[in-house]
Description:
Belongs to the ABC-2 integral membrane protein family. One of its GO terms (molecular function) is ABC-type transporter activity. It is a multi-pass membrane protein. The chain is mainly α. The protein has one domain (68-271). 73% of the residues lie in helices and 0% in strands. The protein has 12 helices and no strands. α3 (68-97) packs across α10.
Amino acid sequence: MTTLVAPAPGSALRWLAADSWTIAKRDLVHWVRNPTAIVFGVTFPVMFVLLFGYVFGSAISVPGGGDYREFLMPGMFAQAMISGAASTVAIVSTDRARGVTDRFRSMPVSRGAALVGRSIADLCNSALELTVLVVCGLLVGWVTRTGPLAVLAGIGVLFLMRFAMIWVGIFLGLIVSPEAAGMAWAPIFPLSMVANTFVSPEQMPAWLGTIAEWNPVSATAGAARILFGNAGAVTAGTASWPAQNALVLAVLWPLLIVAVFLPLAVRRYARAAR
């Protein structure tokens, strides 16, 4: 006679955490063994900092005054968190095409471990990229003018957006081919450009400025400027509603994205087939 034993309280969560970390380590090992991806992922944002900070920066004014590089860096941080979705799409799509996704689904591991592990690995990758950008920013003159708690909150806002974009990347990676995944940067690039990343929406044509103000990237960059105390940060009564409420939108936008794409990614993963 077979006796079914109920799992101990919390065992499912421990199982998920252990399996997720195992898969995350696997993803991180693959990433470390691909130095080309590391170099490209780190140097591309740095090149943007140097290009806009030293080449175009002298021709761009900051609303309310202030140093342009100080205005630029929070925008670059936000752009890096958004752009990371392209690598997520490419990696997930490649794993699916090579049968790795099917192998995970057939193994005796927690059902959500593959997706959670992917998100952990991508957050670790983003932490390195953000660290390099922060160091680069400090070298070109960027500083924070608030206390440690506000700075940590600013970093938290950036990672919240990155976490949201991970689920967008996972979902898209599960439905597109590796060839199409290689072009994932195409829609992401204008998303990060038509925002307050490099210039204020006030300096754009009215219709384009309205789009930029409501862009999730603008909310994240604007919130980071406020929390870091950087040039270009706005306060109530000085700008449009989205700019005045950047801190609120910087939380609401990622939560909305997660609410939409996390269930879609989980459902697609459960139904994935080679």
